[in-house]
Design goal:
It is built from 5 helices and 34 strands. The longest helix has 12 residues. The protein has 2 domains: 92 residues, 3-Layer(aba) Sandwich (Udp-n-acetylmuramoylalanyl-d-glutamate--2,6- Diaminopimelate Ligase, Chain: A, domain 1); 185 residues, 3 Solenoid (UDP N-Acetylglucosamine Acyltransferase, domain 1), CATH 2.160.10. Helix content is 15%, strand content 31%. Strand 4, helix 2 and strand 5 form a beta-alpha-beta unit. It is globular and about 75 Å long. The relative contact order is 0.08. The strands form 6 sheets. Strands 8-11-14-19-22-25-28-31-33-34 form a 10-stranded mixed beta sheet, covered by helices on one side. The chain has an 8-stranded parallel beta sheet with strand order 7-10-13-18-21-24-27-30, with no helix packed on it. A 6-stranded mixed beta sheet has the order 1-3-4-5-6-2. By secondary structure, it is an alpha/beta fold.
Length: 309
């Protein structure tokens, strides 16, 4: 998430009421999670296990809960609770805006687009040309939809990321300030849920088609011309490359990549990154030929045991 204008390190430190290490005029352009950071971004880290990863990332400002050596060309914000302060920044730069209209006055809707009754279109939403948005769709603030997109009833674009920090008193939510971006010629079935990014974008690329009851987690990217069948659940921060086919009731863990033109058969569980151009089956998902061989061998166990008697 980029800020509306550049800020100095001093200004951000004053906002958070925290110490800083670096030039007080150091330029701060935005904030992001570690997998999408760019120079000028703030990234937060609150566990020693990830200090090095954050300090060596593309981010040039690190919000951290310990005084450490500052890498050259970077700056540090020293906080007793970086998770809390990251939320403070999100609330400051992208505060929640209530709405009193079914279609916000700030929404931009392209020529030829049809929006059926009882659909909600939030603040600063952009919808392209010749789209068909069926009844009872909810499109949260800042969502971007391209041209020739079809969205069926009951779908929700832009709900919060499922991202929590465990505290002694319960779970503390990381506030989502990102967006959902739907490119041209995408089809989205009924009752789908696509969560917005924490600070970046959850993206469905050109020509992808989602069946009914598909869930896409925060910051995930679905590639061009992908097909995803019903009751599939994709976790956050997943990269699904182009022309992937995912059959029904597939589940995935977070932070993995599914390669170009991979096929994942129904009811599989994708627990790690998989190569493109192959067919996968089972939990954990492995190449279907190997999985079917293993199942065939399992059926032979009684026969083998009888021979050993």
């Amino acid at each position: 998430m980029k800020f509306p204008k550049s800020h100095s390190l001093q200004e951000i430190a004053n906002l958070l009421n925290c110490e800083f290490i670096g030039d007080k005029n150091f330029e701060v352009l935005g904030m992001n999670e570690i997998h999408v950071v760019e120079p000028g971004d703030i990234v937060f880290v609150d566990h020693p296990k990830y200090y090095d990863k954050a300090l060596q990332s593309a981010a040039t400002i690190v919000l951290i809960n310990k005084k450490v050596d500052c890498p050259e060309g970077k700056a540090l914000l020293i906080s007793d609770d970086p998770f809390r302060d990251f939320n403070t920044l999100t609330k400051h730069f992208r505060p929640f805006q209530s709405s009193n209209a079914a279609i916000s006055k700030s929404a931009q809707i392209g020529e030829g687009t049809i929006i059926q009754p009882n659909t909600f279109v939030g603040n600063n939403v952009k919808i392209g040309k010749n789209c068909l948005i069926h009844a009872n769709v909810s499109i949260y603030d800042h969502t971007v939809i391209g041209d020739n997109v079809i969205i069926h009833s009951g779908t929700i674009l832009g709900a919060d990321a499922f991202y929590y920090k465990k505290r002694p008193e319960g779970f503390d939510q990381l506030i989502s300030g990102g967006r959902v971006v739907i490119e041209d010629n995408v089809g989205i079935g009924a009752l789908c849920t696509i969560d917005k990014g924490v600070t970046g974008d959850t993206t469905i690329k050109e020509g992808a088609k989602l069946d009914n009851q598909v869930h896409i987690g925060h910051d995930t990217v679905v590639g061009r011309k992908c097909l995803i069948a019903s009751q599939t659940g994709i976790a956050g921060c997943v990269v699904i490359e182009d022309e992937v086919t995912i059959w029904g009731q597939v589940g995935s863990t977070s932070g993995i990549t599914i390669g170009t033109k991979a096929v994942v058969l129904a009811q599989s569980g994708v627990t790690k990154s998989i190569e493109g151009g192959k067919t996968y089956f089972g939990t954990p998902a492995i190449e279907s030929r190997e999985q079917l061989k293993q199942l065939a061998n399992i059926k032979k166990i009684p026969e083998i045991l009888n021979k050993l008697k």
